[in-house]
Design goal:
4 domains, alpha/beta, 5-stranded antiparallel sheet, Phosphorylase Kinase, domain 1, 892 residues, 9-stranded mixed sheet, single chain, Rossmann fold
Length: 892
């Protein structure tokens, strides 16, 4: 062991050095993530309007500051401030703990020749750190150094003096709580701290761990010097288990005597020891966990601490990087969804405003036309209503019981004042019954207008109001509702307080005022009927109809003008809001999402390299504009693999690559897409001169370019076309546009079934910035305008299908004649397309022509292309089979 002590120390140093290297990358990513959050929050706090930030995706259309879940921000803060490694040595006795420390540092720094019992031992906690000078001092944990005269400062020492380790009963309370800080220029201490626990009884083990748990990454050792655990030991371990249930512990059996001698190795026993069963009963030594506790009962196997530490540290790094990557992916998905919402808002809102304007105008013109035509109908309706109600009104008038008037039973006349009261009550009866009947019929005649116009218009206006800024939405909403009520709900306000009702009342009142009486009449049934009959016969239906239509048109015209003014105000508000939304959309597409995607790529790559290591590059398989593809025999349990090595030349390519990685990792597995297994960032690529991203992917047999050169059969080529359409359809179903469908990006397996690869230009429609990307001969003309959608993939498939049908990789003659890329693009924009070959089936030619139509709206949907292709394949294969059979028959 002594001869191998140096090797053990170096191995342990390498393990902690590796941990600190990856920890540094993790902490750098976390700092960049926090910086990103501050910048995003600043963007929103400066007043960018539009859909709500990612923390509240449901509150679209409001303005506010960025807000992320508190637990995620707290996680980011803690990850930066902690995770530095520290070995914490617990144990049954001071001798056992000191012996372990001495072996770790390769020197007898702590005295192990005490012969006093553990009960009388009173050593304080000791904290070893790295420093250029050897120094011993007392300090309060995580606070400050105490002024105290140390024995170690009085002269040279190899072992720390006993009096500096002891806690004295008459000491100051601060001194009793202090730990002994020892700084040493030791190689291992450059990578970690080491803490030796105080004697049992001075501080509980779980409290010691709690002091460090939130500031360091602990590697806990428990030194055992006896063949079994005491009750005090069990209670101590039980307390650790209760407070830190998932914390692994390295149990080490040490010699029971002082000194550095080691016991002679003994043959392993056939059965587990008592110590093993005790620890098992306490809940340790559970192999089901990722980094289980470990019991080493032979001190010469201390080197197993290297493997144990590696597991503990790696588990922590993997856990942290996974948690960080989950945050990145969740936020990135929300940003992408936001981009969709903002793009939809920018496209739909102007159409809604235009629709609202045209629909209201159509409604206004319809109502005005109806008002012009309705006057005669209303006259007939009023006459019909009066005729149908006359007898009922007369009978009701004859039976009316007057209120507050005493009618003599002997038929004697009553006063003129009482006569007027009787007439007024008959008036009230007639006007209320007539008003209700006419109003009901008028409302019924207008019902279809509500069904045809009002519902759709109201829903459209509601959506416009919801997307307005909160400061003006309430006012606009109320005003619009009042206008709508005036414009096309006027008929439902035909009640006793309306203008029409007042007009009818005035007309009837005038009729009764014209009635003169020679003498006060006797109030009888006949008198009541005669008064009512005279009133009804004197009503002018034409005048009443004309007045109703005039009132209707006047209110309608006024409402229409108010509506138009309000709509102009709404358009101005939306114009300002959409301008802010477009600015934010641009910020999300070009800044927020790409920057976050790169952070996500880094956190996921850290996770992958920790779990599976750095892949080994085999022979070169191919080379592209930005990367090289190598053979990779095995990685992460996948075999065989292809490794795409990309060295991004600038920030834009870094971000594009990061977004490609995110889209590929976010996609569900599909048999028509090449599977991405993982990624690793190589910070020493090319001998350390550059940084490369290694994308480890499924390896296939060859690409379509090579397949066509090998003269694939027609049936196989048509099946490849079907596979490509299926793959593109799946990408489109996930909201993605590939933008670079070509021969080299279609890979074939051993059965010549196709899979689409290289999503370097693949993006959601809402994330496309209008950049001109792709391979020239496959690029749709609208790509040059910067405004395009997923139909560009249909165009590219049309060109690809030309090659598939030709069975050759030779360029179309129309493209081969072009002297430059610009010449080719100009010809494409003018309508130049590949020529028809003699070998083409007519239906295939028509299909490819439809796919590369210059008008994107005229290109067929892939959901239509797929069954057409299937039909072509079945027809041609059947024809080939028939021709072959006929040839066989003729030869026979």
């Amino acid at each position: 062991m002594e001869g191998g002590g140096g090797a053990f120390s170096r191995d342990l140093n390498r393990i902690f050095s590796r941990y600190n290297k990856y920890l540094g990358r993790l902490q750098h990513n976390v700092r960049e993530t926090r910086s990103f959050l501050r910048d995003v929050r600043l963007t929103y706090s400066q007043g960018a309007a539009g859909p709500e930030p990612p923390a509240s995706p449901g509150r679209a259309g409001q303005q506010g500051c960025m807000s992320f879940p508190c637990h995620e921000e707290e996680y980011l803060r803690l990850t930066v401030n902690c995770c530095c490694p520290c070995i914490i040595i617990l144990g049954q006795s001071c001798n056992a703990r000191c012996h372990v420390l001495n072996m770790l540092l390769g020197s007898r720094l702590l005295p192990t020749n005490k012969h006093t019992s553990e009960e009388n031992c009173s050593r304080r906690r000791i904290h070893f750190k790295h420093g250029k000078q050897t120094q011993v001092s007392l300090a309060l944990p995580q606070q400050y150094e105490l002024v105290h005269l140390m024995a170690a400062s009085q002269g040279h020492w190899d072992t720390i003096p006993e009096e500096d380790l002891e806690i004295h009963e008459n000491e100051d309370p601060a001194h009793r709580l202090a730990e002994l800080e020892v700084t040493l220029p030791h190689l291992l201490l450059q990578e970690l701290d080491i803490v030796v626990a105080p004697c049992q009884g001075f501080q509980k083990a779980e409290d010691i761990l709690d002091n460090y748990f939130h500031h360091v990454q602990p590697v806990v050792m428990f030194a055992v010097s006896k063949d079994k655990l005491s009750e005090l030991d069990e209670n101590e371990l039980r307390g650790i288990q209760e407070k830190f249930s998932s914390l692994p512990v390295f149990f080490l059996k040490v010699p029971s005597f002082g000194g550095s001698e080691l016991i002679t190795p003994r043959e392993p026993e056939s059965e587990h020891s008592l110590l093993h069963y005790q620890l098992q009963d306490l809940g340790y030594l559970d192999n089901s966990s990722g980094a289980p506790s470990l019991l080493v009962e032979q001190f010469e196997q201390l080197r197993r601490l290297c493997q144990f530490s590696r597991q503990v540290l790696q588990q922590r790094l993997v856990s942290e990087s996974m948690a960080l990557n989950r945050i990145h992916c969740r936020w990135l998905d929300v940003f992408i969804n936001q981009a969709f919402d903002m793009q939809r808002d920018l496209q739909i809102t102007p159409k809604r405003l235009e629709y609202t304007h045209s629909k209201e105008n159509e409604l206004f013109e319809s109502l005005m036309g109806i008002a012009d035509r309705k006057q005669e109908e209303m006259k007939e309706m009023i006459v019909e209503t009066l005729n149908s109600m006359t007898e009922e009104l007369l009978e009701d008038a004859a039976n009316i019981q007057f209120k507050d008037i005493i009618i003599p039973e002997n038929g004697e006349p009553i006063s003129t004042r009482d006569i007027k009261c009787c007439i007024r009550q008959i008036q009230d009866l007639i006007i209320s019954r007539l008003n209700q009947a006419v109003a009901n019929k008028l409302i019924s005649s207008m019902d279809y207008l509500r069904e045809s116009f009002v519902g759709t218009l109201e829903r459209c206006l509601e959506s416009l109001e919801k997307s307005q800024l909160e400061s003006s939405a309430h006012m606009t909403s109320n005003h619009l509702k009042q206008i709508l009520n005036a414009a096309y709900h006027v008929e439902v306000t035909f009640h006793s307080g309306s203008t029409v009702s007042r007009m009818v009342w005035e007309q009837i009142k005038q009729i009764f005022q014209r009635i003169t009486w020679v003498s006060p009449p006797a109030i009888s049934r006949e008198w009541k009927r005669r008064v009512a009959q005279d009133a009804i016969e004197s009503l002018s239906a034409s005048k009443l109809a004309k007045t109703i239509c005039s009132q209707f048109c006047k209110r309608l015209n006024s409402s229409h003008e108010a509506f138009a003014a309000s709509l102009r105000q709404l358009e101005v508000g939306h114009s300002w809001r959409l301008e802010k939304t477009e600015d934010l959309w641009l910020k999300v597409r070009k800044d927020h999402a790409p920057r976050l995607a790169r952070l996500s790529l880094e956190s996921r790559s850290l996770q992958d390299v920790l779990l599976h290591g750095k892949p080994k590059l085999g022979r070169e398989l191919g080379r592209g504009q930005y990367g090289v593809v190598y053979l990779c025999d095995e990685w992460g349990g996948h075999y065989p693999c292809a490794l795409k090595s990309v060295v991004p030349p600038d920030e834009k390519h870094w971000n594009d690559l990061a977004l490609e990685f995110h889209y590929m990792r976010s996609l569900p597995k599909h048999e028509r897409l090449v599977d991405l297994h993982g990624s690793v960032i190589d910070y020493s690529y090319g001998g350390g001169s550059s940084i490369a991203v290694l994308l480890i992917m499924e390896r296939l047999h060859r690409d379509l370019y090579t397949g066509l050169k090998a003269e694939l059969m027609l049936e196989v080529r048509l099946q490849i076309a079907l596979d490509v359409v299926e793959g593109i359809r799946f990408l489109h179903s996930q909201g993605l546009v590939h933008r670079d469908i070509k021969l080299k990006n279609v890979l074939l397996d051993e059965n010549s079934r196709a899979k689409i690869t290289d999503l370097g230009f693949c993006k959601p429609e809402a994330m496309m910035s209008g950049s001109i990307v792709g391979t020239p001969i496959h690029m749709a003309p609208e790509l040059f305008t910067g405004k395009y959608d997923n139909s560009v993939d249909v165009y590219a498939f049309g060109i690809l299908f030309w090659y598939i049908c030709s069975g050759s990789v030779k360029l179309p003659e129309a493209f081969e004649r072009c002297s430059s890329k610009d010449h080719l693009w100009n010809n494409v924009k003018k309508g130049v397309r590949p020529e028809k070959l003699d070998a083409f089936d007519e239906e295939c030619w028509e299909l490819m022509k439809a796919c590369w139509n210059g008008d994107p709206s005229q290109r067929p949907l892939l959901g239509i292309v797929q069954p057409m292709l299937q039909g072509i394949k079945e027809r041609l294969c059947k024809a080939n089979a028939t021709h072959l059979n006929k040839g066989l028959d003729d030869s026979t």
